[in-house]
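TICKET #2291
ISSUE: user wants both folds in one file
ATTACHMENT 1:
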Amino acid sequence: MASTDGGHRHEHAAGSGAPLPAHATPFDNHSVEHGPESVVRSYYELVDANRVEDMLALFDDQAIYRRPGYEPLNGKSMLRSFYNGVRVIEHGSHQITCVIKQDRSAAVVGCFEGKLKSGSQVNVRFSDFFSLNEQGLITERDTFFFTPSI
């Protein structure tokens, strides 16, 4: 369950109304039965809150992340380096408009609005494609942005 406070989302333990401990993730409350939509929604909540280590708990150790302008990020170590330094985003939030799921895969359409480390504001539509393993961990993620490139 989530609540908002001044535009910030706070996760609560299911049914308790109490905030989750700092080391807990919304993923802790989601089992594989909830499927990929639950996992990917947790991903966006955690990345927007800059909870990198909790967000990384959603990924398989050998996960691969592909996005325009970067070499593939292979494994949690590269993901950690990306989110803790390489990523050009200073802060922002993802608004999910559509999640399409099938088996252990999910396609997401949404909009990201935020501030880049350069100081520029950004508002861009995106699509993400996630694959999960049998344990419900993300094994692959591919991101595409709706911006002119060719």
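ATTACHMENT 2:
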Amino acid sequence: MKIDNDGYYQDLDEGRYWDEVAEEDFKDSLRASREARTAKKRAIRKEVEKQLKAAGVQKSTHEIRGAKIEVNCLTCKSKFTARVADRKRGWAKYCSKSCKAKKQTNWSWL
């Protein structure tokens, strides 16, 4: 340990300096990884938008809940509008609850 003329410990000061340098390096690496993740998400979003545009799906500008697509009901074969996200989940197969109930009810035992 080095002691100054004033009785100040220089080693402690140097230790604090290197701690600050290490902290700044850590923050820089976090910032860089965050920017990389953001750029990757942005690229994925652009690719999805390009694919939706190629498929003819238009994203609604005035609604909050994403892109929509026209689909045929499995029961009555009529067309209805469904969200793309719901279709990906396996939802939005029927135009109404009554159509779903008709398809869901099994009358084979009669």
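RESOLUTION: both attachments delivered.
EXTRA DETAIL ON ATTACHMENT 2: The beta strands are 68-72, 79-83.
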